[in-house]
Write a structure and sequence with these properties.
The chain has about 325 residues and is an alpha+beta fold. It has two domains: about 5-75 and about 125-180, PhyR, sigma-like (SL) domain (Butyryl-CoA Dehydrogenase, subunit A, domain 3, Up-down Bundle), CATH 1.20.140; about 90-125 and about 185-315, Nuclear Transport Factor 2, Chain: A, CATH 3.10.450. It has helices at about 5-25, 30-45, 55-80, 115-125, 125-130, 135-145, 150-160, 165-180, 185-210, 215-220, 245-250, 255-260, 305; strands spanning about 90, 100, 220-230, 240, 260-265, 270-275, 280-290, 295-300, 310-315. The chain starts with a helix and ends with a strand.
Length: about 325
């Protein structure tokens, strides 16, 4: 076996562990896969002859790659990219038809949906929501130490901070995570609200995929409002639909397009994103009432609005 073969075999032994770390740090299978691939590229281009603990070395590298991604992600949210591609959803105000257009040249989204389900379920929606509220340094300190038992000295080396400073970061993060756990009344309400949102979004998506008009009516509030921004309407003017029948009629006619959609956390609430070919085009942000029905749908297609959203794909 050559040195290259040995490195490749050693990397494969650590791949699942690296992917688990990257996913918890980044909250995205696609970003996690990119981080793992970047780690492999760095390994294959480095002299590791003096490395005594290759697994620890790889963990440090994937953590640094993920930290850079988290910091860049924050920067992009402050300064939207402003992509000007024509990603639109067609909405017919008379018929209520909602259809997602498919620009040519879309790229594929890495990651197996089954893997997305496994990873998202293993982390949990509530934890993903809370982790997204932490700073990159807090998130890294908490994930590496509390979830993967990495010593503070090693975590601090990744962050460029002292062990004591790293301990304080993890402590702050831990308090926020515990504050959102089921131990407190407010967090219990939050968890119940997320489950209610997820049930409604899942029912909407399943009904839309099957073109089931009656099932759509059941999950929509009688006075549901749908608002679509100007970027999602061919005329260039924002559109509104009112009432369960109009909204359900449009969604029931979009079964083919709904097949290209996924549940997602949209700024911390459960919604749906349309990404045919892996290219994000339209996001549906839901408001779910106390009765568990959808009372409002915000159809977002404007590139700047899309770039400012915090999204995490969830299993159906």
């Amino acid at each position: 076996m050559t040195d290259g073969d040995w490195l490749a075999a050693a990397f494969e032994e650590n791949r699942d562990h690296l992917r688990a770390i990257a996913y918890r740090l980044l909250g995205s299978v696609a970003d996690a896969e990119d981080a793992v691939q970047d780690t492999w590229l760095r390994l294959s281009g480095s002299d590791t002859s003096d490395v005594e603990n290759l697994g620890g070395w790889l963990t440090t590298v994937v953590a640094r790659v993920s930290l850079n991604t988290l910091r860049a992600r924050r920067h992009r949210r402050e300064q939207p990219l402003g992509d000007t591609s024509a990603d639109v959803a067609e909405i017919n105000p008379q018929g209520g038809n909602v259809a997602v257009s498919r620009p040519s040249g879309t790229s594929g989204l890495p990651g197996d949906p089954a893997d997305e389900i496994e990873l998202a379920d293993s982390v949990g929606i509530a934890l993903l929501v809370v982790l997204d509220t932490l700073t990159p340094a807090e998130r890294l300190a908490f994930v590496l130490h509390d979830l993967f038992a990495m010593p503070f000295a090693e975590v601090g080396a990744v962050l460029g901070r002292t062990p004591e400073a790293t301990r304080q970061l993890a402590s702050r993060a831990r308090r926020r995570v515990r504050g959102a756990s089921s131990d407190g009344p407010h967090s219990a309400e939050r968890a119940a609200d997320l489950q209610r949102q997820r049930a409604a979004a899942n029912a909407f998506l399943a009904a839309a995929r099957g073109g089931d008009f009656e099932a759509l009516l059941a999950v929509l509030d009688a006075d549901v409002e749908l608002a679509a921004d100007a970027a999602t309407v061919p005329s260039g003017n924002a559109a509104r639909l009112h009432g369960a029948e109009q909204v359900a009629r449009g969604a029931s006619l979009s079964a083919g397009r709904a097949a290209d959609s996924q549940l997602a956390l949209v700024n911390g609430s459960v919604g749906v994103l349309f990404a045919p070919g892996g290219r994000l085009q339209v996001v549906l942000a839901f408001t779910v009432g106390p009765a568990g029905t959808i009372t409002a749908i915000d159809v977002i297609g404007d590139p700047e609005r899309l770039s400012g959203l915090e999204l995490a794909v969830l299993p159906d």
